[in-house]
Design goal:
By secondary structure, the chain is an alpha/beta fold. Helices cover 36% and strands 16% of the residues. It is globular, with a radius of gyration of 18 Å.
Protein backbone atom coordinates (compact mmCIF):
# COMPACT_ATOMS: atom_id res chain seq x y z
CA UNK A 1 0.00 0.00 0.00
CA UNK A 2 1.26 3.47 -0.83
CA UNK A 3 1.91 5.77 2.09
CA UNK A 4 -1.10 7.73 3.30
CA UNK A 5 -1.17 11.32 2.03
CA UNK A 6 -0.50 13.01 5.35
CA UNK A 7 2.79 11.17 5.86
CA UNK A 8 4.26 13.13 2.96
CA UNK A 9 3.17 16.45 4.46
CA UNK A 10 4.48 15.37 7.83
CA UNK A 11 7.95 14.64 6.48
CA UNK A 12 8.01 18.16 5.02
CA UNK A 13 6.91 19.71 8.33
CA UNK A 14 3.69 20.98 6.74
CA UNK A 15 1.28 18.84 8.75
CA UNK A 16 2.20 20.62 11.97
CA UNK A 17 1.73 23.99 10.23
CA UNK A 18 -1.77 23.00 9.08
CA UNK A 19 -2.66 21.93 12.62
CA UNK A 20 -1.51 25.26 14.04
CA UNK A 21 -3.51 27.15 11.41
CA UNK A 22 -6.64 25.17 12.23
CA UNK A 23 -6.31 25.66 15.99
CA UNK A 24 -5.90 29.40 15.50
CA UNK A 25 -9.23 29.45 13.66
CA UNK A 26 -10.97 28.27 16.83
CA UNK A 27 -10.40 31.72 18.32
CA UNK A 28 -13.14 33.15 16.08
CA UNK A 29 -14.73 29.95 14.93
CA UNK A 30 -15.79 29.74 11.32
CA UNK A 31 -14.77 26.16 10.80
CA UNK A 32 -18.10 25.29 9.21
CA UNK A 33 -20.83 27.19 7.35
CA UNK A 34 -22.54 28.11 10.64
CA UNK A 35 -19.74 30.67 11.13
CA UNK A 36 -20.66 31.20 14.79
CA UNK A 37 -17.64 33.41 15.52
CA UNK A 38 -17.23 32.23 19.12
CA UNK A 39 -13.85 31.75 20.81
CA UNK A 40 -13.70 28.03 21.36
CA UNK A 41 -10.14 28.49 22.66
CA UNK A 42 -11.70 30.24 25.65
CA UNK A 43 -14.35 27.58 26.09
CA UNK A 44 -17.16 29.41 24.28
CA UNK A 45 -19.50 27.24 22.23
CA UNK A 46 -21.63 27.86 19.16
CA UNK A 47 -24.05 25.70 17.20
CA UNK A 48 -22.03 22.50 17.69
CA UNK A 49 -21.73 23.12 21.47
CA UNK A 50 -18.10 21.98 21.35
CA UNK A 51 -15.32 24.03 22.90
CA UNK A 52 -11.57 23.48 22.88
CA UNK A 53 -11.68 19.69 23.18
CA UNK A 54 -13.33 17.09 20.99
CA UNK A 55 -15.86 14.77 22.58
CA UNK A 56 -15.79 11.13 21.47
CA UNK A 57 -18.78 8.82 21.87
CA UNK A 58 -17.06 5.58 20.84
CA UNK A 59 -14.36 4.11 18.66
CA UNK A 60 -13.54 0.69 17.25
CA UNK A 61 -13.54 -1.50 14.12
CA UNK A 62 -16.83 -1.07 12.26
CA UNK A 63 -18.17 -3.64 9.80
CA UNK A 64 -21.37 -1.84 8.78
CA UNK A 65 -19.77 0.67 6.43
CA UNK A 66 -19.47 0.34 2.65
CA UNK A 67 -17.54 -2.70 1.43
CA UNK A 68 -14.55 -0.68 0.11
CA UNK A 69 -13.96 0.62 3.64
CA UNK A 70 -14.60 -2.54 5.62
CA UNK A 71 -12.63 -5.37 3.97
CA UNK A 72 -11.67 -8.04 6.47
CA UNK A 73 -10.32 -5.83 9.26
CA UNK A 74 -13.12 -3.29 9.47
CA UNK A 75 -13.16 0.48 9.21
CA UNK A 76 -11.53 2.11 12.21
CA UNK A 77 -14.31 4.48 13.24
CA UNK A 78 -14.10 7.32 15.75
CA UNK A 79 -17.58 8.72 16.48
CA UNK A 80 -17.47 12.36 17.55
CA UNK A 81 -20.26 13.76 19.68
CA UNK A 82 -22.40 16.66 18.48
CA UNK A 83 -22.68 17.84 14.88
CA UNK A 84 -22.92 20.98 12.77
CA UNK A 85 -26.23 19.90 11.18
CA UNK A 86 -28.33 18.31 13.95
CA UNK A 87 -30.95 16.81 11.64
CA UNK A 88 -34.35 16.35 13.22
CA UNK A 89 -34.43 12.72 12.00
CA UNK A 90 -30.91 11.78 13.16
CA UNK A 91 -30.47 8.05 13.77
CA UNK A 92 -27.65 8.81 16.22
CA UNK A 93 -29.44 11.52 18.18
CA UNK A 94 -27.96 10.30 21.46
CA UNK A 95 -24.54 11.24 20.08
CA UNK A 96 -25.43 14.31 18.02
CA UNK A 97 -28.23 16.07 19.90
CA UNK A 98 -27.67 14.68 23.39
CA UNK A 99 -23.86 14.74 23.05
CA UNK A 100 -23.15 11.47 24.79
CA UNK A 101 -19.42 10.87 25.07
CA UNK A 102 -16.27 12.02 26.83
CA UNK A 103 -13.97 14.97 26.25
CA UNK A 104 -10.59 13.79 24.98
CA UNK A 105 -7.28 15.61 24.74
CA UNK A 106 -4.89 15.36 21.82
CA UNK A 107 -2.92 12.43 23.28
CA UNK A 108 -6.07 10.41 23.94
CA UNK A 109 -7.36 10.98 20.42
CA UNK A 110 -3.99 10.04 18.97
CA UNK A 111 -4.01 6.87 21.07
CA UNK A 112 -7.36 5.85 19.59
CA UNK A 113 -6.01 6.15 16.06
CA UNK A 114 -2.94 4.06 16.85
CA UNK A 115 -5.01 1.42 18.61
CA UNK A 116 -7.28 1.08 15.58
CA UNK A 117 -4.22 0.57 13.36
CA UNK A 118 -2.87 -2.05 15.79
CA UNK A 119 -6.22 -3.85 15.66
CA UNK A 120 -5.91 -4.33 11.90
CA UNK A 121 -8.38 -1.74 10.59
CA UNK A 122 -8.01 -0.67 6.96
CA UNK A 123 -8.47 3.05 7.62
CA UNK A 124 -9.23 5.66 10.27
CA UNK A 125 -12.81 6.80 9.76
CA UNK A 126 -13.70 10.10 11.46
CA UNK A 127 -17.49 10.21 11.82
CA UNK A 128 -18.94 13.75 11.97
CA UNK A 129 -15.58 15.57 11.94
CA UNK A 130 -16.56 19.01 10.57
CA UNK A 131 -16.56 20.77 13.96
CA UNK A 132 -13.39 19.14 15.32
CA UNK A 133 -10.91 19.42 12.44
CA UNK A 134 -8.27 21.28 14.52
CA UNK A 135 -8.37 18.61 17.21
CA UNK A 136 -7.99 15.86 14.60
CA UNK A 137 -5.00 17.56 12.98
CA UNK A 138 -3.30 18.11 16.34
CA UNK A 139 -3.64 14.40 17.12
CA UNK A 140 -2.54 13.41 13.64
CA UNK A 141 0.82 15.11 14.15
CA UNK A 142 1.42 12.85 17.15
CA UNK A 143 0.26 9.71 15.35
CA UNK A 144 2.38 10.44 12.28
CA UNK A 145 5.38 10.69 14.60
CA UNK A 146 4.37 7.31 16.08
CA UNK A 147 4.03 5.52 12.72
CA UNK A 148 0.36 5.81 11.72
CA UNK A 149 0.09 5.07 8.01
CA UNK A 150 -3.55 4.24 7.33
CA UNK A 151 -5.76 6.19 4.91
CA UNK A 152 -7.98 8.76 6.62
CA UNK A 153 -11.73 8.92 5.92
CA UNK A 154 -13.63 12.21 6.29
CA UNK A 155 -17.16 10.96 7.02
CA UNK A 156 -19.36 14.05 6.96
CA UNK A 157 -22.91 15.31 6.55
CA UNK A 158 -21.75 17.37 3.56
CA UNK A 159 -22.15 20.73 5.32
CA UNK A 160 -18.53 21.83 5.03
CA UNK A 161 -16.80 25.08 4.12
CA UNK A 162 -14.47 25.05 1.13
CA UNK A 163 -12.01 27.24 3.01
CA UNK A 164 -11.75 24.71 5.81
CA UNK A 165 -11.55 21.78 3.39
CA UNK A 166 -8.58 23.47 1.73
CA UNK A 167 -6.68 22.97 4.99
CA UNK A 168 -7.18 19.23 4.54
CA UNK A 169 -5.73 19.04 1.02
CA UNK A 170 -3.04 16.38 1.09
CA UNK A 171 -4.17 15.07 4.47
CA UNK A 172 -7.37 13.10 3.93
CA UNK A 173 -7.24 10.26 1.43
CA UNK A 174 -10.97 9.44 1.30
CA UNK A 175 -13.89 11.85 1.50
CA UNK A 176 -17.29 10.35 2.31
CA UNK A 177 -19.89 13.14 2.40
CA UNK A 178 -23.64 12.85 2.51
CA UNK A 179 -25.67 14.76 -0.03
CA UNK A 180 -28.87 15.03 1.96
CA UNK A 181 -31.22 17.46 0.24
CA UNK A 182 -31.58 19.31 -3.04
CA UNK A 183 -34.43 21.67 -2.18
CA UNK A 184 -34.18 24.53 0.29
CA UNK A 185 -37.41 23.81 2.17
CA UNK A 186 -36.60 20.33 3.57
CA UNK A 187 -33.01 21.36 4.33
CA UNK A 188 -34.41 24.28 6.32
CA UNK A 189 -37.16 22.31 8.02
CA UNK A 190 -35.11 19.27 9.00
CA UNK A 191 -31.57 20.68 9.39
CA UNK A 192 -32.00 24.44 9.80
CA UNK A 193 -29.60 24.81 6.86
CA UNK A 194 -31.28 26.73 4.02
CA UNK A 195 -27.96 26.96 2.15
CA UNK A 196 -27.34 23.22 2.35
CA UNK A 197 -27.49 22.51 -1.40
CA UNK A 198 -25.07 25.24 -2.45
CA UNK A 199 -22.74 24.34 0.41
CA UNK A 200 -22.76 20.62 -0.39
CA UNK A 201 -22.25 21.25 -4.11
CA UNK A 202 -19.19 23.40 -3.44
CA UNK A 203 -17.85 20.95 -0.86
CA UNK A 204 -18.14 17.96 -3.20
CA UNK A 205 -16.31 19.85 -5.94
CA UNK A 206 -13.46 20.67 -3.56
CA UNK A 207 -13.29 17.12 -2.25
CA UNK A 208 -13.21 15.63 -5.73
CA UNK A 209 -10.57 18.14 -6.84
CA UNK A 210 -8.38 16.93 -3.98
CA UNK A 211 -8.77 13.15 -4.25
CA UNK A 212 -10.60 12.27 -7.50
CA UNK A 213 -12.79 9.23 -8.06
CA UNK A 214 -12.67 6.34 -5.59
CA UNK A 215 -9.68 4.05 -6.18
CA UNK A 216 -9.76 0.43 -5.01
CA UNK A 217 -6.80 -1.90 -4.58
CA UNK A 218 -6.64 -5.48 -5.83
CA UNK A 219 -8.63 -6.64 -2.81
CA UNK A 220 -11.38 -4.07 -3.32
CA UNK A 221 -10.29 -1.82 -0.45
CA UNK A 222 -10.48 1.94 -0.97
CA UNK A 223 -7.15 3.76 -0.87
CA UNK A 224 -8.17 7.20 -2.11
CA UNK A 225 -11.07 9.13 -3.61
CA UNK A 226 -14.64 10.33 -3.16
CA UNK A 227 -17.56 8.20 -1.96
CA UNK A 228 -20.96 9.91 -1.73
CA UNK A 229 -23.85 8.78 0.45
CA UNK A 230 -27.45 9.71 -0.28
CA UNK A 231 -30.29 8.74 2.06
CA UNK A 232 -33.62 8.23 0.29
CA UNK A 233 -36.39 10.06 2.15
CA UNK A 234 -40.19 9.59 2.15
CA UNK A 235 -42.15 11.47 -0.52
CA UNK A 236 -38.98 12.11 -2.52
CA UNK A 237 -37.95 14.86 -0.09
CA UNK A 238 -34.23 14.24 -0.64
CA UNK A 239 -34.51 15.19 -4.33
CA UNK A 240 -32.60 12.11 -5.49
CA UNK A 241 -32.89 12.74 -9.22
CA UNK A 242 -31.54 16.29 -8.94
CA UNK A 243 -28.70 15.19 -6.67
CA UNK A 244 -27.62 12.39 -9.00
CA UNK A 245 -27.75 14.57 -12.09
CA UNK A 246 -25.59 17.14 -10.35
CA UNK A 247 -23.04 14.51 -9.33
CA UNK A 248 -22.92 13.00 -12.81
CA UNK A 249 -22.63 16.33 -14.64
CA UNK A 250 -20.57 18.46 -12.25
CA UNK A 251 -18.48 15.98 -10.25
CA UNK A 252 -17.94 12.74 -12.19
CA UNK A 253 -20.03 9.97 -13.74
CA UNK A 254 -17.55 7.60 -12.08
CA UNK A 255 -18.43 8.78 -8.58
CA UNK A 256 -19.01 5.86 -6.20
CA UNK A 257 -22.44 6.42 -4.65
CA UNK A 258 -24.31 4.61 -1.91
CA UNK A 259 -28.05 5.20 -2.38
CA UNK A 260 -29.22 4.25 1.08
CA UNK A 261 -32.56 2.66 1.91
CA UNK A 262 -32.31 2.56 5.71
CA UNK A 263 -34.28 5.67 6.56
CA UNK A 264 -36.49 5.18 9.59
CA UNK A 265 -38.22 7.83 11.70
CA UNK A 266 -35.99 8.66 14.67
CA UNK A 267 -35.82 11.47 17.20
CA UNK A 268 -38.26 14.27 16.22
CA UNK A 269 -39.19 12.60 12.92
CA UNK A 270 -41.59 10.27 14.71
CA UNK A 271 -44.07 13.12 15.17
CA UNK A 272 -43.51 14.71 11.75
CA UNK A 273 -46.28 13.71 9.30
CA UNK A 274 -44.00 14.05 6.28
CA UNK A 275 -41.16 11.85 7.49
CA UNK A 276 -42.79 9.82 10.24
CA UNK A 277 -42.63 6.55 8.29
CA UNK A 278 -40.10 4.35 6.53
CA UNK A 279 -39.69 4.61 2.78
CA UNK A 280 -41.50 2.14 0.55
CA UNK A 281 -39.92 -0.35 -1.83
CA UNK A 282 -41.33 1.68 -4.73
CA UNK A 283 -39.73 4.89 -3.44
CA UNK A 284 -36.37 3.20 -3.18
CA UNK A 285 -36.59 1.59 -6.61
CA UNK A 286 -37.49 5.00 -8.06
CA UNK A 287 -34.41 6.49 -6.44
CA UNK A 288 -32.21 3.76 -7.94
CA UNK A 289 -33.77 4.30 -11.36
CA UNK A 290 -33.19 8.05 -11.09
CA UNK A 291 -29.54 7.42 -10.22
CA UNK A 292 -28.97 5.12 -13.18
CA UNK A 293 -30.78 7.46 -15.57
CA UNK A 294 -28.55 10.30 -14.39
CA UNK A 295 -25.52 8.26 -15.44
CA UNK A 296 -24.32 7.13 -12.02
CA UNK A 297 -23.11 3.56 -12.53
CA UNK A 298 -20.83 2.87 -9.54
CA UNK A 299 -23.58 2.13 -7.03
CA UNK A 300 -22.73 0.42 -3.78
CA UNK A 301 -23.80 -3.24 -4.23
CA UNK A 302 -24.68 -4.09 -0.63
CA UNK A 303 -27.80 -6.16 0.03
CA UNK A 304 -30.92 -4.03 0.41
CA UNK A 305 -33.25 -4.46 3.36
CA UNK A 306 -36.82 -3.29 2.81
Amino acid sequence: MDSASYTILHKKGLLRERALQAVELLGNCRMCPRACGVSRLRGEVGFCRTGRYAKVASFGPHFGEEAPLVGTGGSGTIFFSSCNLLCSFCQNSDISHLREGEDVDVKELAGMMLELQDRGCHNINFVTPSHVIPQILEALVLTADAGLDLPLVYNTGGYDSVGTLSLLDGIFDIYMPDFKFWEKEPATSFCNAPNYRDTACAALKEMHAQVGDLVLDQEGIASRGLLVRHLVMPEGLAGTGHVMRYIAREISRNTYVNVMDQYRPCYKARSDPRIGRRITAAEYERALDDSLKAGIHRLDPRTRFM
